[in-house]
Amino acid sequence: MIENSKISNVKFPSNADYRERIERAQTAMKQGGIDVLCVSGFDYLRFFTGLNGIPIGRPIWLVLLQDGAPAFVSPRSEAKEIRARCSTPVAVEWVEWEEPVPAPMTHQDALAKYIGEVAPDARVIGLDFNSAWALNIEMVKQVLGTERIKDATTMLRGLLALKKPIVIDGIRRGTDIVGHQYTACREVIAPGVPEWQVTLASVTTAIKRNAELLDDDVEQPRFWPHQMSMVGSGPERTARCHCSGGGRIMQDGEHVQICFCGQVFCGYGVCFDRPIAVGSKPLSAKLRKVLDVAREAQEAALAKIRPGVAAGDVHSAAVQVIERGGWDRPFLHRTGRGIGYSDWDGIELKANSPVKLEAGMVLSVEPGIYVDGIGGARFGDTVLVTEIGYEVLTPFGLGRHI
User: Fold this and answer.
1) Which of 266, 281, 362, 372 has the most CB atoms around its CB within 10 Å?
2) Distance between CA 79 and CA 94 in Å, rounded?
3) CA distances (Å), 161 to each of 95, 196, 345, in order?
4) How many CB atoms lie within 10 A of CB 350?
5) pLDDT digit string (tens) for 2-24?
6) How does pLDDT run across 230-242, given as a tens digit for each residue?
7) Residue 326: pLDDT band by 50, 70, 90 thresholds?
8) Eight-class DSSP state of 121
């Protein structure tokens, strides 16, 4: 494949970048009447501190006040990892055994202890309802009081909407990786091969390309399983949008739909979807129509993208093309979403969305067509909204014509 000329040496956000994000959050907290903000979703931990690649089975809370620096409330199992991977301090550790000097033995008690120390008069405590586990939210309510807890999801999503150059640089690396994944998968796809071997090629290639880009970085994981390496073949499985590389044997004259959406490089979210033909037999005319209209629908959506356009209008442009195909209910999902800091940054390219596009937003544009008995297809790409229109960050020409 053609290498991305805009990929250079790896650059990570600086402490100044994280301070700027924290200060924006603190401004939003003051405007929204939130005294303390507590987040546990791994996307927000990374967004505010750079912490990446830690399992979140045991809750890790990042606590922000309206002023000052944030701090972690962490299980002891992860406290050393946090200190090794970022500069944000761990203020309170909770344990799962009894100690001579009693320590909190649950995450909610540890969180309540810390808030009681640093913000005893806090009346409103914001939580990230969208990414924190529901059970953990209920446990926090039990110790802090339901009346004090507020959903901060909308406020937090607003912080993710626009991407600065340092973030776009990271996203570009993710789009470079999915291009390599596509090339590796195309080499494996052939009649008689099971789908899972395509998934294996995808994942292995992602790890190797991460290793090349990260070079001698000690801490960043080379692969963190928040990327979908979705693979489905044949008329029945491609008519569903998210088959996952099973045991089906690919046949000559059919196609495979691949989906490489997710966080493939250092937590940055990207989107890349392509259909790929299997073997040398020609595709059926009915399937060819699905493929051609899916490609045209994405191109219609892309043509709408520029600052000031409503997200719903981008979706409508794709829908109008697809509806001309005459299929009965060929839709399974929206046209796209905001991505970059996470796999979903809050924006949706869906019917009637009034959100106005702005320069600096990064979107997935991936309208799909799914027809029972024939198959499905989508062309998906990662797109940056620019001052005058858009830039496709993924290798747009790769696999465009099959």
Assistant:
1) 362
2) 9
3) 36, 35, 6
4) 18
5) 445 455 578 899 999 999 999 99
6) 999 999 999 999 9
7) very high
8) T
Q: How far apart are the first and last CA of the chain?
A: 16
The whole-model pTM stands at 0.94
Tell me how far the alpha carbon of residue 318 is from its chain's centroid.
Answer: 22
From CA 371, how far away is CA 172, in angstroms rounded?
33
Q: Are 401 and 292 in contact (CB under 8 A)?
A: no
Do 332 and 400 form a contact (C-beta atoms < 8 A)?
no
Q: Which amino acid is it at 302?
A: L
* Spatial CB neighbours of 261, under 8 Å, sequence gap ≥ 6: 227, 228, 230, 269, 270, 271, 272, 273, 339, 343, 364, 366, 380
CB 53 within 8 A of CB 35: no
The candidate with the shortest Cα–Cα distance to 291, out of 315, 256, 264, is 256
**Is 223:362 a contact under the CB 8 Å cutoff?**
no
CA 15 from centroid of its chain's CA atoms: 23
